[in-house]
Amino acid sequence: MSDVRLRLSGVSRTYRGGAGVHGVDLDVAAGEIHALVGLNGAGKSTLMKLMVGMLRADAGTVEVLGRNIFGTDGVDWAQVGALIEYPLAYGELDGRTNLLMAARLRGMRGRAAATAVDGAIDELRLDRYAAVRARRLSLGNKQRIGLAAALQHHPRLIVLDEPTNALDPSGVILLREALLRRAEAGAGILISSHHLDEVARIATRISVIADGRIVGTLDPDGIDIERAFFAMVYTAEATTS
């Protein structure tokens, strides 16, 4: 696949007791939205953490923007946007300042940082909350702040773990539109979810994870993909039990 933004080859990470992820191969190309779906506890969050260096693999390799993840420098990471598990927001700072700090951490300064923040506030309709301290925001609006921070610098690679968690319907639609725009502009996007119906609306590819392994793929345009998903998961569980 040309212009691969993320590649995992034989990636494993095993916790005490045997849970984790095992021998995962996965890639994300420029311009695609690759969805990773599975039941709770399937290994989605562990895999996402491995992709962005929050965890180190026991075996296998992770490449981000064409380089081994542990040889990736600050310039490369400035081209990545990620939100894993919980949005990072400093409670005593307002929404705009949180976004400005995120922009600066990715090397943006002055007018460029301010423009990125203004664009993110407008795109995810955060203007009502820009001057509100993060600790006073609802969980859904904190999630919007976290998503805005991950997207505002128009990264080449986007990794989002359960991004629609706590979002209301308007937030889900705004995120969907933002991701489609970035994919059209050439970003490679990986999102994990257990909401199959939502990711099927925007995904180019859907990979299914069960018991820490990729067990198959689904056609986003297929008929009754929910039935296909559960059949795939239950078959995988029966094989490994």
Output the CATH homologous superfamily of the largest domain.
P-loop containing nucleotide triphosphate hydrolases
CATH class of the largest domain: Alpha Beta
Overall shape: it is: globular
Computed over alpha carbons, the radius of gyration is 18 Å
How many individual β-strands? 10
The amount of beta strand, in percent, is 25-35%
Decide which structural class fits the backbone.
alpha/beta
Summarize the biggest pleated sheet. Answer: 6 strands, mixed
Distance between the termini: 34 Å
Number of domains: 2
Uncertain segments: none
**In order across it, which strands form the biggest sheet?**
6-7-8-3-9-10
Under the CATH scheme, the architecture of the largest domain is 3-Layer(aba) Sandwich
What letter string, H or E per element, gives the SSE order? EEEHEEHEHHHEHEHEEH
Report the CATH topology name of the largest domain.
Rossmann fold
Average pLDDT value? Answer: 92
Helix percent reads 25-40%
**Helix run count:** 8
